[in-house]
Amino acid sequence: MELKTDLFLGDSKKILKKLPDNSVDLIVTSPPYADQRKDTYGGISHDKYVEWFLPITKELFRVLKPTGTFILNIKEKVVNGERSTYVMELIIEMRKQGWFWTEEFIWHKKNCFPGKWPNRFRDAWERLLQFNKDKKFHMYQDEVMVPMGDWAKSRLKKLSETDKVRDNSKVGSGFGKNISNWLEREKAYPTNVLHLATECSNKNHSAAFPEELPEWFIKLFSKENDTILDPFMGSGTTIFMANRLKRHAIGIEIVREYYSMVKEQIEPVQLYLLESKENYEPIKSSGGYAVR
Amino acid sequence: MELKTDLFLGDSKKILKKLPDNSVDLIVTSPPYADQRKDTYGGISHDKYVEWFLPITKELFRVLKPTGTFILNIKEKVVNGERSTYVMELIIEMRKQGWFWTEEFIWHKKNCFPGKWPNRFRDAWERLLQFNKDKKFHMYQDEVMVPMGDWAKSRLKKLSETDKVRDNSKVGSGFGKNISNWLEREKAYPTNVLHLATECSNKNHSAAFPEELPEWFIKLFSKENDTILDPFMGSGTTIFMANRLKRHAIGIEIVREYYSMVKEQIEPVQLYLLESKENYEPIKSSGGYAVR
DNA sequence: GTTCCGCATGAATCGATAG
DNA sequence: ACTATCGATTCATGCGGAA
User: Which of A29, A264, A278, B87 has its CA 20 to 30 A from that of B238?
Assistant: First the structure.
């Protein structure tokens, strides 16, 4: 079966109306934060944020399957020395639209922005809000199990640093086998706290959204040939990861530059998939990423 | 100067009225969660929680000094498969009382409660909400600095391995100077994510509140001879830590058993303080605990 | 080929300065 | 008084060049 990737250039509020009801298995997105990225996006002011976002969540509710999940990455900024409350107001309003606020995961950022202020420490975490249409939804917990305890953790860390490249090339040889043995033996279910680093300068897009984040949620809340939607595609991290994990993808982006950038990168991947789908494995299928 | 510890048996809402305006430097508390600990506290239902708590926060606002801080440890429970919104409603209502919601710290619990559910992972974090009466408040950041990350650590390690002998002999020369620069920068300011293990040392009280938590906030938001208040004292962790760090303490507890237990343990400490105050140092004055 | 060091660069936040 | 812009602060990360 062929994987389909649909990219749209335009405003999410309008584009989403084209999508049919109950057609998406998982939505993973990181909308532009209030007052951020003014140069590329409009820069939605914090006191208008809920008003701006609610029409979009209403459409997302319509297109999501009853068994599907909506993961929203967001963090309120400081306004006049105080945390703004628009995220909380958003949650309360979304519940009125019919959403269930199932869970709040924490993304603990290893490398947060530096700085020193007289009355505040550095902000090292963001919210990953999980919403559902129904109390029954698909969740594949076994797909995101993690190495257990300090013993396995340090062992794996050392190995991955020094021998990861070798490991990839020597499939089936001694090292690879050992690693997979450890993985089989020492696995536990993760918690609702994810401990990841933000990716640095690598991309042209300003938002640092590490690949592990969509990867984790795609594995957890969808299976192969499901459909993943990102209504604020940005540099396309969610879309690429969906493809890599053999899910259909739908991406919407309002900035033409990003849209084109993603489209160009998608094309060769699609061709590659048609040529030799079997050899195209997810980059980190071993699950050795740092999630606690 | 003598340290004073006042313990009250009774309902916070009533007892707090006895305390004078603007008399407390720091409030650190962990109130009974909604529907939790029903057998001991009578169990406030989640839909009445805000209504129950607001009169108390109003009194807390009155007794807190304008430069003081209120740290509230809380986490919403799951009701019918969904996170309840009473914490958010509480924040929004407290702002109407005049509180500034300055910051939300995350307590990342290393060893959270075990268990497995089909649609949910283990809950490994709690909120530590910081409220203030004024945008200017006392904060002693240097008291909670932590060892720096891998960069400086590996740097120092390497230097000490290769150049330790030379360094010792050539005091004041180029190398020694460089090293001491790094040594001074060995500590960094923490972030708003605290990574502590839960302690269960006070097994008589049902809430697991590790000593490091009040210790951290007491050091951060108060100085010696300041006054610390805990309106839901429980097993007295905050009170004991306040005493140990040479702060005055006020504790309120509605359950006679806890009240008596804390009172009995406080008496000998007070006597000890009178005997030899100088020798009584905080247990962890070196600050080497694991806070990120 | 390694390992190692130097350097730029972030979904930040505050306070001062300018219109 | 109120908003817009700018500099200073500071640390984990990944890259490129060097030993």
Answer: B87
Alpha-carbon gap, residue B2 to A278, rounded angstroms: 76
- pLDDT category at A179 given cuts 50, 70, 90 is very low
Are residues A63 and A108 located together in one domain of the fold? Answer: yes
Q: Name chain A contacts of B81, Cβ cutoff 8 Å.
A: 100, 102, 135
Q: Which three-class secondary structure state does DSSP give residue B263? A: helix
Question: In 3D, which of A88, A130, A134 has the Cα closest to residue A107?
Answer: A130
Please tell me whether residues A10 and A87 are part of one structural domain. Answer: yes
Domains contained in chain B, number: 2
Backbone angles phi, psi at A91, to 5 degrees: -60, -45
Residues A125 and A209 in one domain: yes
At B42, is the secondary structure helix, strand, or coil? coil
Domain span holding position B167:
156-188
In degrees and rounded to multiples of 5, residue B96 shows phi and psi of: -70, -25
Distance B280 CA to D12 C1' (A): 38
| Alpha carbons B101 and A223: distance in angstroms, whole number | 41
Residue A172 maps to a domain = yes
List all residues 6 or more positions away from B80 whose beta carbon is below 8 Å from its beta carbon. A135
Q: Of residues A249 and A41, which shows the higher confidence score?
A: A249
Tell whether B163 and B203 lie within a shared domain. Answer: no
CA atom of A31 to C1′ atom of C11, Å: 10
Of B80, B92, B116, the CB nearest to A85: B92
Q: Name the amino acid, one letter, at B8.
A: F
CA distance between the termini of chain B: 34
Look over chain A and give the mean of its residue pLDDT values, rounded to a whole number. 81
